[in-house]
């Protein structure tokens, strides 16, 4: 019985998103649903050590949480109108079955808890909410992360994160943000928002913008898990399945990036560039899954930026040695990406790929045109990329100057160590 | 915890339309300060079509004269201060509003996106304060 709290925690982590989505679907109120689920967890921690873990722990928690919501409403039901909400819940409770003391006997998994996570995901990622709140709310409600965990993942204090979540939930209630999958007309645009939030969660985990933890892996894992849920839910709905290509592309992209996690940082915590990574340490399972997902996406014939990025990542993943990389193909993919989703950063990557395919001087020529872009002037990777091309072109003094400039702009510990190392390697060679 | 709006959402499930929103129409006055008669007629026709399309949901709405016709009043320490013009100089000015009834924000946003003028100006969608 000692391990019961661990069982509760495991069940909670895996199922809380689904339970919460179903509770919010019935009650229509975030905070009440969260409080009721919290109550049910306390009950589980008290009862399971004596009664044993129920056969359907998630169904048990859902039923108990509904009843706790009723309790809370009763305590609060001073106005006549609230009785109505109460009746709605009571009807549901009655429909769960008559045997009140053994709720788990009457609930089959999947039947007892309708899967409303997709609706909740669209609520959490509603464009009426600020992006940082979308991401926090998604992790908190669908990811089952605690507020403390979300706060530490985003390097903000717990009170700040608590406030952010409270404000978001208040806006959902006050502005009337619905809990449902958007109508067909709005679907594509809204799905883009959901994918952007998931990718942001992944990237925050993959490359922290400040501090020393280059890979906060829980966030990557969580983004991938939510991506899988989204793919599964989307493919169940005929109207949504047509729009699944980019979701598949994003999941493929995240898996292909994540496959390099072990090889991406060395023992001292410095970033290791793709061409210098030990490819034996890449995760073959994730690569195979990512490539298969990308193939499925391409069959839908709806190209998009995530699929192109996944295709680029797949070309890297499939090269056995760095020198086997198909840079010409990658440069072409960056060119199509620049057409679909133009950005100076995409151009930067294209220049680097062109340099690998056609020589550093070709890449430098493209970079020269980019230098005038204002948004790149404060972007350390611009200088790091140019320094790398200058180094390859044997223009060492200019390369060193660019590494210094990149270091001046970079705040990430692991990236700084990498740049520092490149700079000292240049200095050593210069001194010989 | 439980508020009137939630109760309405639960109880009004069948009749729907349990949220009220103001659609505040903002635009650059200077850009269209001298509309021709045809332009004015086109704007009127567009609003009439909009009103017909959403007649079941529109509770009301008005257009406002230009901000050059505005006067701002403040009372500070018991003293009334009256000044010419709007409270703040902004790039876009409030030019009119509709009040609508909706199920939720998504519906309000969809109606706002089909308002005449949305392609040049912007529509701020604000829930009304409800008193129970």
Question: Can you describe what's shown?
Answer:
The complex is a heterodimer of chains A (432) and B (132). With 432 residues, chain A is mostly helical. Chain A is built from 22 helices and no strands. In chain A, helix 1 (4-27) packs antiparallel against helix 2, helix 8 (147-153) crosses helix 9 (158-175) and helix 10 (184-206) runs parallel beside helix 13 (245-258). With 132 residues, chain B is of the alpha+beta class. Helices cover 25% and strands 33% of the residues of chain B. In chain B, the strands form two sheets. A four-stranded antiparallel sheet of chain B has the order 2-5-1-6, covered by helices on one side. A two-stranded antiparallel ribbon of chain B has the order 3-4. The longest helix of chain B is centred in the middle third of the chain and has 17 residues, at 37-53. Chain B starts with a helix and ends in a 5-residue tail after the last strand. Residues 1-16 of chain B have low confidence and may be disordered.
Task: Give the tags.
A: 432 residues, 72% helix, 0% strand, B: four-stranded antiparallel beta sheet, two-stranded antiparallel ribbon, 3 helices, 6 strands, 25% helix, flat, disordered N terminus
Shape of chain A: elongated
Largest sheet: number of strands, sense, barrel closure of chain B: 4 strands, antiparallel
Largest interface summary: A-B, 28 and 24 residues
Radius of gyration of chain A: 25 Å
Task: State which percent range the strand residues of chain B make up.
Answer: 25-35%
End-to-end Cα distance of chain A: 68 Å
Tally of alpha and pi helices of chain A: 22
Q: Rg of chain B to the nearest angstrom?
A: 18 Å
Short description:
The complex is a heterodimer of chains A (432) and B (132). With 432 residues, chain A is mostly helical. Chain A is 72% helix and 0% strand.
């Amino acid at each position: 019985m000692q391990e019961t709290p661990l069982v509760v925690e495991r069940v909670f982590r895996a199922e809380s998103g689904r339970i919460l989505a179903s509770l919010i679907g019935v009650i229509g109120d975030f905070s009440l649903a969260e409080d009721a689920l919290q109550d049910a967890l306390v009950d589980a921690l008290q009862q399971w050590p004596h009664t044993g873990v129920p056969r359907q722990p998630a169904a048990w928690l859902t039923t108990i949480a509904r009843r706790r919501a009723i309790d809370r409403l009763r305590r609060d039901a001073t106005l006549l109108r609230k009785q109505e909400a109460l009746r709605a819940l009571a009807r549901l409770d009655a429909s769960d079955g008559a045997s009140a003391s053994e709720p788990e006997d009457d609930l089959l998994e999947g039947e007892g808890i309708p899967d409303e996570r997709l609706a909740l995901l669209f609520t959490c990622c509603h464009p009426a909410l600020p992006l940082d709140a979308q991401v926090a709310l998604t992790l908190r409600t669908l990811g089952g992360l605690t507020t403390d965990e979300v706060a530490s993942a985003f390097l903000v204090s717990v009170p700040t994160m608590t406030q952010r979540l409270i404000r978001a939930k208040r806006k959902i209630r006050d502005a009337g943000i619905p809990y449902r999958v958007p109508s067909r007309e709005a679907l594509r645009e809204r799905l883009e928002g959901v994918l952007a939030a998931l990718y942001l969660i992944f990237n925050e985990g993959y490359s922290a913008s400040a501090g020393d933890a280059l890979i906060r892996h829980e966030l990557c894992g969580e983004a991938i898990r939510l991506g899988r849920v989204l793919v599964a839910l989307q493919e169940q709905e005929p109207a949504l399945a047509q729009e699944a290509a980019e979701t598949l592309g994003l999941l493929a992209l995240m898996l292909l990036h994540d496959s390099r996690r072990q090889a991406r940082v060395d023992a001292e915590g410095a970033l290791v560039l793709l061409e210098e990574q030990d490819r034996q340490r890449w995760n073959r399972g994730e690569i195979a899954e990512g490539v298969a997902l990308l193939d499925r996406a391409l069959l839908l014939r709806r190209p998009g930026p995530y699929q192109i990025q996944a295709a680029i990542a797949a070309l890297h993943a499939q090269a056995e040695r760095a020198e086997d990389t198909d840079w010409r193909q990658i440069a072409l993919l960056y060119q199509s990406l620049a057409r679909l989703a133009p950005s100076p950063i995409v151009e930067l990557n294209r220049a680097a790929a062109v340099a690998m395919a056609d020589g550093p001087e070709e890449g430098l020529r493209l970079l020269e045109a980019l230098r005038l872009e204002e948004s790149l002037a404060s972007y350390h990777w611009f200088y790091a990329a140019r320094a790398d091309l200058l180094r390859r072109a044997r223009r060492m003094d200019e390369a060193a100057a660019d590494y210094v400039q990149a270091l001046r702009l970079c705040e990430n510990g692991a990236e700084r160590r990498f740049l520092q190392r490149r700079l000292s390697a240049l200095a050593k060679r210069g001194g010989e | 915890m439980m508020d009137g709006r939630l109760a309405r959402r639960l109880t009004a499930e069948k009749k729907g339309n349990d949220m009220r929103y103001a659609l505040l129409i903002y635009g650059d006055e200077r850009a269209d300060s001298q509309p021709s008669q045809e332009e004015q007629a086109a704007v009127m026709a567009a609003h009439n079509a909009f009103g017909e399309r959403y007649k079941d949901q529109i509770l009301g709405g008005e257009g406002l004269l230009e901000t050059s016709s505005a006067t701002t009043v403040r009372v500070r320490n018991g003293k009334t201060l009256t000044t010419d013009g709007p409270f703040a100089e902004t790039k876009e000015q409030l030019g009119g509003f509709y009040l609508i009834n909706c199920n939720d924000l998504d519906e309000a946003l969809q109606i706002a996106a089909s308002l005449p003028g949305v392609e040049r100006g912007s529509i701020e969608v604000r829930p009304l304060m409800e008193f129970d």
